[in-house]
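TA notes, week 10

Several of you asked for a full example with nothing omitted. So below is the full record: structure tokens for the whole chain, then the designed sequence directly under it. When grading your own attempts, check the secondary structure regions first.
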């Protein structure tokens, strides 16, 4: 986990990217004007169990619901990463512009499932995906936190980036309103496969909401390559967490007026 936790903050680059437009987006989407305030609001969703029981869990509060997440330490996907909290905070506080109610949503690299759970609590029909090894714990967390609380029962299923994506998610029958992704770009060898998966799943009307933690240069170049295919809008910039939240949509097919929500 060293590669993941070691942060490459790249302050110069951040400053360069932090344009006036970014500042405007912070105001529009967050109501908080500073990184510190926003980071504090994001982290305030977490709480720790007051009494230690036989099973350890991390507590989160979203949508007025208590969410208990079981982690383990052996796999990246078994740990909850702060990007997931950033994305959940955004979804919860921007329901007027980004309503998930009755929307078809897919999450890539869902890990311990917080984003899937919060999206389901907010009314989405969620397909929660990850590598096979991660699915057991993901299913456990998703069931434990959504059963009897959500309109739609989330579907937990394998999606290994770049593998059999058309067979598992044919474009003719699987059109998603949103693709959600938190902390899926880091030093793994499947960045091209991840790009191809975004490309396959993102149709004309699909929007991608992607929280990215910046660590190392090669991963940053993923953003530049991503920008060649997709329009990219920055929704949050959180230098103190080294996280940015992006919204994206297809360049080649887009007919929808994506400027609306940002206006
Ligand atoms: C850093 S974790 C983030 C987990 C979760 N989104 C969060 O923010 O807490 C990266 C996730 O991507 C998944 N992942 C890594 N490589 C993958 C691949 N080739 N195909 C599908 N998922 C992958 C991991 O299993 C893990 O759940």
């Amino acid at each position: 986990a060293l590669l993941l936790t070691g942060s490459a903050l790249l302050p110069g680059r951040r400053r360069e990217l932090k344009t006036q437009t970014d500042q405007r987006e912070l105001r529009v989407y967050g109501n908080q004007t500073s990184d510190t305030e926003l980071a504090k609001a994001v982290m305030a969703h977490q709480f720790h169990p007051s009494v230690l029981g036989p099973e350890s869990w991390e507590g989160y509060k979203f949508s007025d619901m208590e969410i208990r997440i079981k982690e383990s330490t052996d796999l990246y996907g078994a740990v909850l990463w702060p990007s997931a909290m950033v994305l959940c905070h955004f979804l919860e506080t921007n329901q007027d512009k980004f309503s998930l109610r009755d929307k078809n949503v897919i999450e890539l690299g869902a890990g311990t499932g917080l984003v899937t759970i919060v999206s389901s609590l907010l009314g989405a029909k969620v397909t929660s995906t990850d590598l096979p090894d991660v699915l057991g714990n993901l299913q456990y967390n998703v069931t434990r936190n959504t059963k009897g609380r959500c309109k739609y029962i989330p579907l937990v299923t394998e999606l290994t980036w770049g593998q059999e994506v058309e067979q598992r998610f044919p474009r003719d029958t699987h059109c998603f309103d949103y693709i959600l992704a938190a902390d899926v770009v880091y030093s793994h060898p499947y960045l091209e496969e991840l790009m191809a998966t975004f490309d396959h799943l993102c149709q004309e009307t699909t929007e991608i909401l992607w929280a990215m933690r910046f660590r190392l240069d090669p991963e940053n170049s993923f953003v530049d390559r991503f920008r060649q295919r997709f329009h990219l809008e920055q929704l949050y910039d959180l230098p103190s967490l080294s996280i940015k939240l992006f919204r994206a949509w297809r360049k080649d097919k887009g007919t929808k007026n994506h400027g609306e929500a940002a206006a």
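The first strand starts at residue 46 and ends at 47. Use that as a sanity check on your answer.
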